[in-house]
Amino acid sequence: MSERPSAPGGGRNTRHPTGIRVVIALLALFALVLGPVGYLRGLTAVAHSGSAAEWFTLAFGAAVGIPFLAAAVATVAGDRKAALWSLALLVWPVVFVTVLHLTT
């Protein structure tokens, strides 16, 4: 049984659903953009413009870490649908790594 109090009148507890979804959308945008950019920069890194390992770490952190962060935020806020969509973003690294290796 949940310790969260139910909404007045027995309805749904909708504290700030729009705000949570905006935060989740921003985090998803960051994950969708920073993952491929970091990975591409890692593939094209040369000795003087930065280490490839640093760029691959950024790409992994953005592509995997940010969706987990978004899922955690959505779960704490009580928005299961947003949490599931956030976890669905974990497929994105497989897609962009495959596409980048096929095109470069």
General description of the model:
With about 100 residues, the chain is mainly α. About 70% of the residues lie in helices and about 0% in strands. It is built from four helices and no strands. Helix 1 runs antiparallel to helix 2, helix 1 runs parallel beside helix 4 and helix 2 packs antiparallel against helix 3. The longest helix is centred in the first third of the chain and has 27 residues. The mean pLDDT is about 85.
Distance between the termini: 52 Å
Main sheet: strands, sense, barrel: none
Backbone CA Rg: 18 Å
Q: Tally the beta strands.
A: 0
Strand content is under 5%
Shape assignment: elongated
Helix content: over 70%
Key traits:
mainly alpha
Write the layout of secondary structure elements.
Layout: H1 17-43, H2 52-77, H3 80-88, H4 92-103
Short description:
This protein has 104 residues and is an all-alpha fold. The protein has helices spanning 17-43, 52-77, 80-88, 92-103.
